[in-house]
Amino acid sequence: MTQVPGWRDVFGPLRPLLEDPSVSEIMVNGPSRVYIEQKGLLKKTQVCFPDAKDLLLLIEQIARGVGRVIDANNPYLDARLPDGSRVNCVIAPVALDGPSLTIRRFPGKVPTLQDLVAMKTLDERMAFFLHCSVAAKINIIVAGGTGSGKTTLLNALSFSVPPHERLVTIEDAAELRLKSENLVRLESRPSYQDKAAITTQALVTNALRMRPDRIIVGECRGAETMDMLTAMNTGHDGSMTTTHANSPRDTLRRLESMILLTGRDMPVKVVRSNIASALQMIVQVARSADGQRRITDIVEICGMEGDVVLTQEIFRYTTGVGFASLGFVPRFVSKFADRGIDFPKDFFTDNYEVRMGSGPKK
Fold first, then answer.
1. How far apart are CA 217 and CA 239, in angstroms?
2. For 172-223, how does the pLDDT look when each residue is reduced to its tens digit (9 = 90+)?
């Protein structure tokens, strides 16, 4: 499926949806059940395929277009379309009710932090703080559920990386669109036919030999987690990644579980110590019932006390109140001046909020 003007033609009834910029996700549950996501909300469409065979034919064409095979022995596929959209296909015997197809699309313009402020994902104060944190090479993990906006936020944060720095990105299906000239993009690959798998873990290990200033892993979900933390702990400050988790504390538990489930013979306290020394910030994102994506928490990881990883909330979103600083000054703010960043001394006080024009906190 080469990138030519008519590549969408093979998608038949899905073509109008692919050409609609307001559609962020297309979900085909069967020939007559096609859903889309628009503005964060799911809707059923009138689009349909003649029958399941036509849907299966499209899935097979997608697989051929990316040089893969999907059949009973390889019943699922995860790949990229020519426009960068991510496509997932599942067929029998895994899909019990017939072929299924999901396409996650990305906006033509990569949103900046200011764009996300306009979209009410965060406020101006949080955007400035995150910009300074990235520029100062703070290690960050963005956590949230499926479709909460993790990748979008990670892309926006990349605008704050100084242009002279060398970045290496690692993903299982390339979604990041970072704005950097000194950039190397790596993509893992599952095993298929006679081709061996190329794991994210192997790519993280290889990236360490590529003289990166920062390593950005699209998502930590398994064995690569410890390697990512090791990279953060060995001079690759400012590295970033994402993970699926529903709260900052859940993020820490998930990281711990992913490391231990790989079979590494490490005491729990050592695992937690590695997490606490490698990561400095958790940015939690969530999608509300009305489809709005927001940063709900920005949390500093403050080290260890006994066997417990300590955290402190810096910003929080509360329904009915909005975004607010909790008055806590992160310890890593001292690094801002070292990087030549002019950061207001009263940034976390009510006085700064008044200067911004929002008035004193209630």
1. 8
2. 877 788 878 899 999 888 777 777 888 888 999 999 999 999 999 999 988 8
Burial of 224 (C-beta count, 10 Å sphere; 0-12/13-18/19+): buried
Q: Do domains 14-104 and 113-356 have the same CATH topology?
A: no
Asked if 43 and 27 touch (Cβ cutoff 8 Å), the reply is no
DSSP states of 162-192: -TTS-EEEEESS-------SSEEEEE-B--B
Domain boundaries, the chain: 14-104, 113-356
Q: Indicate the length of the chain as a whole number.
A: 362
Cα separation, 99 vs 148, in Å, equals: 26
CA distances 42 to 39, 94, 360, Å, are 9, 24, 38
Q: Please, what is the Cα angle at 327 between 326 and 330, to 5 degrees?
A: 100
**Coil, helix or strand for 52?**
helix
Residue 362 in this model has a pLDDT that exceeds 50: no
**Spatial CA neighbour of 349 closest among 322, 329, 321:** 329
Query: For residue 82, what pLDDT is reported?
Result: 81
From the candidate CATH numbers 3.50.50.60, 3.20.20.100, 3.30.450.90, 1.10.645.10, the one assigned to the domain spanning 14-104:
3.30.450.90
How many CB atoms are located within 10 Å of the residue 282 CB?
26
Rounded to 5 degrees, φ, ψ at 290 are: -85, 5
Alpha carbon separation from 134 to 107, 129, 249, 335 (Å, rounded):
23, 9, 22, 11
Superfamily of domain 113-356 in CATH is P-loop containing nucleotide triphosphate hydrolases (3.40.50.300)
Average pLDDT, the chain: 89
